[in-house]
Design goal:
The protein has eleven helices and twelve strands. It is of the alpha+beta class. The protein has two domains: about 35-170, Jelly Rolls, CATH 2.60.120.10; about 195-265, Winged helix-like DNA-binding domain superfamily/Winged helix DNA-binding domain (Arc Repressor Mutant, subunit A, Orthogonal Bundle). A hairpin with a 3-residue loop joins strand 11 and strand 12 (about 255). The longest helix has 27 residues, at about 165-190.
């Protein structure tokens, strides 16, 4: 057993040093140290910005002002530095997370160090529904891509809404169904489409007004991990789409020039 544990840890060290360091810290201290800032006591006057964000989330859109104020009053604020782990796969974290600022990636790691990005989270999105509604450990790891601010909404507060608001459960089921459909689409892309098709589909679904903006963290390596491949292959796929006149790549953005043709590429298996 000891040899297996040591082998497992050595693989993880080779695979992802910063992830292993955080795991070892937890073994030593029995808890995570969340750096930068932590405020566990909210003011008696709820944050107006937080209330507005809560109302923009489908989960909470139809709640009364009084209930939204209760949610905001019981929220906990955390800040994370770029590269810091927000949620660790296998851990149980009894909070619903609301990302207020920054970007976060949700990832799975293989024992040989390969990284598969499941989602990029942007401000206004929630995550860790599994820990709140299903009482299950986190199925993936969430890592800050840049400085990020996150609100923790207590599990007990959210679950109380399940009993007090009959329509709330229906909203949750609908949102979780959307997440399931997204994951089905992701599995389909990874298993059935070539890399160029996956890239075309990602551009079509992620671009705003036919432009995919690329923050500083959105490197070729991150794009490759999202597409389930390696940077060299992504570079060749980008070059091919650009040579065909379908896209135009710049340092901070990718512009779609021929959406109809790109849609055809995205459907080719």
């Amino acid at each position: 057993m000891l040899s297996y544990i040591l082998q497992h840890l050595s693989v993880k060290i080779v695979a992802k040093n910063n992830l292993v360091i955080c795991m070892l810290k937890r073994v030593a201290t029995n808890h995570f140290t969340f750096s930068v800032k932590m405020n566990t006591t909210m003011s008696s006057t709820p944050n107006d910005s937080l209330i507005a964000q809560l109302r923009a989330i489908p989960f909470f859109a139809d709640l009364s002002d009084a209930l939204l104020q209760t949610l905001a009053r019981n929220a906990i604020w955390h800040e994370y530095a770029a590269g810091e782990i927000v949620v660790l796969e296998g851990e149980s974290t009894p909070h619903l997370y609301l990302l207020q600022s920054g970007w976060i990636k949700v990832v799975k790691y293989s024992l040989d160090g390969r990284e598969q990005i499941l989602r990029f989270l942007e401000p206004g999105e929630t995550f860790n529904e599994m820990g709140v509604f299903a009482n299950r450990p986190n199925p993936a790891t969430a890592i800050a891509l840049e400085a990020a601010g996150v609100w923790f909404i207590r599990k007990e507060t959210v679950q109380r809404l399940l009993h007090e608001q009959p329509d709330f459960a229906s909203l949750i089921i609908s949102q979780l169904a959307d997440r399931l459909l997204y994951l089905v689409s992701l599995v389909s892309d990874l298993s059935l489409l070539p890399v160029t098709g996956r890239l075309a589909h990602l551009l079509l679904t992620s671009a705003t007004d036919d432009v995919l903006h690329r923050p500083r963290w959105y490197t070729q390596a991150e794009l490759a991990a999202r597409l389930g491949t390696v940077p060299d292959v992504v570079q060749r796929a980008l070059r091919q789409l650009e040579q065909d006149g379908l896209i135009e790549t710049e340092r901070k953005q990718i512009r779609i020039l021929d959406r109809a043709a790109l849609e055809i590429v995205a459907q080719q298996q």
